[in-house]
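DM between two lab members

TW: hey, do you still have the DUF2788 domain-containing protein entry open?
JB: yeah, one sec
JB: this one, 69 aa:
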Amino acid sequence: MQQTFETWITPIMIGGLILFMCFIIWDLAKKSQAGHFGTIMLFVVLGAGMLGYVFKVVITWMLENGNGV
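TW: and the structure you got?
JB:
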């Protein structure tokens, strides 16, 4: 039961955290009046860490399921 709960809740909570961080980046861009280019750069630079985590999860899943190299 606990393992099933952890299997489901972990991706949901991490997904929620990523969405919250996206909101924080958007709010930062809005409050600093970054403009369109500045907002894009904030999402690219600050979102790179989140994207790296997502890539890690996808690559790990692929390797565990035999879809990897």
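TW: got it. The chain has two helices and no strands. Residues 2-64 form one domain.
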